[in-house]
Structure formats: C-alpha cells, structure tokens
Design a protein that fits this description.
single chain; 364 residues; alpha/beta; D-Maltodextrin-Binding Protein, domain 2; 2 domains; six-stranded mixed beta sheet; five-stranded mixed beta sheet; 12 helices; 14% strand; globular
Length: 364
C-alpha cells in the first residue's frame, strides 16, 4: 500500500466509521445518521486556489449523482476552499461512452465515470466495477484500500495519461429487469439486453446479446422492442419510467458493482499540491460514506415503487442465484483482466477477489 494514500485514507476511514463487518451483519441495515466530518486540510502557503472542470457520466436526474455532488462539496470543504470542482455537465454535453479521451487530452480536467464506459481504452478499468458492493448495502471502501484495489487501478491508468484517485462506493450492483420472465440461464437465449461491455462474458455465454445504451436511450429501445430487458448497474428504473415498458424485476442485484471512479488527466492532477491532492482523496472516502447511507434508502423505495406499479418480482432458486453471481465475477475477471494483461490484470484480479471474499463470503 502506498504510504501517501494510506495515511489519508486511514484517517478518513476512522472519521467516517467505515466498518464492513457491521454493514454485512444486517441484511437490510438501517441508514445511519451522518457521522463526524473529517477535518479540513490545514492550508499551507502554496495551496493557491484552483478550479478544475469535470465531466460526469451520469445525469443529475439519477440518485447516484448525489454522491458526485457531495464529493464536489467535500473537495471544497476539505481543501479549505482552495480546490473547486466545476461540473460542466453530464452525458448531455458529451456521451457517457466518449468522455475518457477528451478528459485525457485536457478538454476536461477530470471525469466521474465507471470503467465499463471506456473499454475501448482499457478493459482493466472494469476491475473498478467488479468489487462486490452488495451485502445488502455493505460498504466496500475499507476493503478496497486494504486489499490494494486502488493501487492496482492507479497502475492501470498511469500509462494512459490518467490519474485514478479512487471510487465513490455505495449502493447496490447491477440489477436485471426484463420483458419476459427469466427463471434459468436457458431463458437468456436469444434475448437482446441493454448491458455495458463488462457484462458480455457471462450474458453472452448464456446466449443473450447486448448493447451498451446510455440512460436516455433505454426507454425508447424498450418501447420499440429493440431490447427485451436490461442489466443496469444501480438505480434508475423509476426515474426512467421503465415500469411502463418492463414486466419483471429480480430480488437482489446478486452481483455487486464498484462505484463512481474519480479520474483526472495527469497534467491537471499535477497542478494540485500534495495537500490538495490529499483533500481530494479524503473527499472520495467521505462521499463513499454518504453514498452508502443514502443509496440504501433509494434501493428500498425503487423496489417497492416498481412493485406498486405492477412489476412482478421473480425469486430465483439458491442454485440459480449462486450460478449467476459466480459467473458474473469469475468469467469477467478471467476474460477482461487476466487474459487481457496478466502483468497488470492478475494483481487487480487478486485485489478484487480479496474484497469479494470480505463482502460476499458465502457467494458459493
């Protein structure tokens, strides 16, 4: 573990009481009150005010964006007002799948995204999405630091001209919604689903085909019958009114997701002092604690809202659930991390499995 990061993260983890064991012990934890805020960074003379422009992969209509907005506020607070992150917009400005290159090239200074949205630049970024983040809403920021996930991802992005800072975790992983019922892996055959590239190894193995549509494209695709369901990493069904064009939901996400990756181009990151960089890293930890609390409530409301709107819940057998969960992790890790680049992929795979063993010890 790199010392400069460990010192900052350990302090914030203690301040925000990110205790994984406590989260995992209760299948439906009660949202906790706000914990004591981390102290602001002590300003030093060279911490001159700076504003950095960031692009967001998600529209603010989605609940997940509340974590991004909280992160922006925390950066300002923890840097004692010397760092301002200016959110220039979301996918309405630049398509979610096309934001990586302009950020690397300096059109934007930073990006809030997920690894699944820039697989054309590196598939190893998918490792950020593969950390279990469900237990039900067990936080995985602590294990990610402990297991070295953030270190491994920093090594992945450095040669690409990007600085990986960390992930704003919290919430649940990908969920399945369909037009037709799915009761076994055989039922996926011939189904065309909205799913990011990350999910191809196991969905395609089941006989499904996939398309990586962004949020605004999903409803019309379902309405026209272009897709027969979707595997989507987080909330959004009620905001997207998918209940009008879908019939079935499934009990859990059954497989986790990482969170919102925070990346800066290296030139912009280099403009920050060490003190300011620490404030940004600490803001990721702070936003993760916030996101974990608020997304627990969002999940409960979304599942209940879909049920009230007539979307039927299909309960899978334990065997089906275990097969789906294990294939999700194992097939993706092997095909997109280890096979693509054993040198960088194997350490990342080991770190991800370390996190998953902590969060989902009984995944079978």
């Amino acid at each position: 573990m790199r010392l400069h990061r460990l010192l900052g993260f350990v302090a914030v983890l203690a301040a925000f009481s990110v205790v994984v064991a406590a989260c995992g012990s209760d299948p439906t934890p009660t949202p906790q009150p706000a914990t004591k805020a981390a102290p602001t960074a002590t300003p030093v003379p060279e911490d001159k005010p700076i504003t950095l422009d960031i692009i967001d992969a998600f529209p603010t209509v989605l609940d997940i964006s509340r974590g991004t907005l909280h992160f922006i506020d925390e950066v300002a607070r923890l840097s004692n007002g010397t760092v301002t992150l200016n959110r220039v917009g979301g996918p309405e400005v630049t398509h979610s799948l096309e934001q990586f290159a302009p950020t690397r090239d300096g059109v934007y200074d930073g990006i809030i995204t997920v690894g699944a949205y820039h697989t054309d630049h590196t598939k190893l970024g998918l490792g950020e999405n593969l950390r279990a983040n469900y237990g039900r809403v067990a936080d995985n920021f602590g294990p990610a630091v402990e297991c070295g996930v953030f270190d491994a991802l920093e090594d992945v992005y450095e040669p690409l001209g990007m600085q990986y800072v960390g992930s704003i975790v919290g919430g649940w992983g990908a969920r399945l919604w369909t037009v037709d019922p799915i009761n076994s892996t055989e039922d996926f055959k011939g189904k065309h689903l909205r799913a990011a590239t990350i999910y191809q190894p196991f969905l395609h193995a089941y006989g499904a085909t996939t398309a990586p549509l962004q949020f605004s494209e999903i409803y019309p695709a379902l309405e026209k019958g272009v897709i027969k369901g979707l595997y989507w990493g987080g909330s959004g069904a009620l905001a997207g009114k998918w209940n009008e064009v879908l019939n079935y939901q499934y009990p859990d996400s059954l497989a986790g997701g990482g969170g919102l990756a925070v990346l800066f181009n290296q030139k912009a990151w280099g403009k920050l002092t060490a003190n300011q960089q620490k404030a940004v890293r600490d803001a990721v930890a702070s936003a993760s604690a916030y996101q974990t609390r608020q997304m627990n409530d969002v999940e409960k409301k979304e599942v209940a809202g879909l049920t009230a709107a007539g979307v039927e819940t299909i309960d899978w057998s334990d065997e089906m659930a275990a097969t789906f969960t294990n294939d999700h992790y194992d097939k993706i890790i092997q095909q997109y991390l280890i096979d693509v680049d054993p040198t960088l992929g194997q350490p990342l795979a080991d770190a991800i499995r370390c996190v998953n063993d902590i969060i989902l010890p009984d995944r079978g």
